[in-house]
Predict the structure of Type 1 glutamine amidotransferase domain-containing protein.
Amino acid sequence: MTEVLFVVTAASGWTLKDGTVHPTGYWAEELAEPHRLFTEAGWGVTVATPGGVAPTLDELSLGVAGGLPKRRQQIRAYIDSIQEQLEHPRVLDEVDESAYDLVFYPGGHGPMEDLAFDPVSGELLRKRLASGKPLALLCHAPVAVLAATNDDGSNAFAGRRMTGLSNVEEKLNTFGWKAKWYLQDALEDAGINYRKGVLPLRPFVEVDGALYTGQNPQSATALAERILADLA
């Protein structure tokens, strides 16, 4: 059986430049849709978080920002169906990434608070990239690669092609203008070859070898389907 490790943020808030903390967590569709597609394909899914903390659902992701009402209802129902797994994640630093056929990072604003600076996640990502085995990060989750550094301090992902939520898309959030920094800028500053789609909020997937990234929540299905096609 193909085995997938989902690395999910443990953050429940995102600290903005004015010092306020915006309630957040993982984005529902970005976790639910790939989880569903992989499970329906017969793949096994393991969820892990920093410290083994049960991840927090960003309720905004099931509001109007999460799409049409019927779609949001389907996603919430799926999240509810896997709640037992989400409430009892593995502790990230006790997980061996090499035991999994795919490592998948769903997004949400939570990774901007914790995974961007998490040395355990960073080392996992560095080792995974070096192994050449499939690795996927979606929307805000590519920010986690900022913690993946080489011995000389350079970023392990420098020079690789990646996408993630663009500056334009972040600023479409009503609170986006209060961000301390933006994902796109941070990836480019780290030497990553950032790519994005022509239009914001449209599916866009970038594939660089075994490194898969999706730009936004709208890319969740396309990213999972591309991985399924390649790993089948």
Q: What stands out?
A: The chain has one domain: 3-231. The chain has a mean pLDDT of 97. Residues 11 and 186 are 19 Å apart (CA to CA). The chain is about 30% helix and 15% strand.
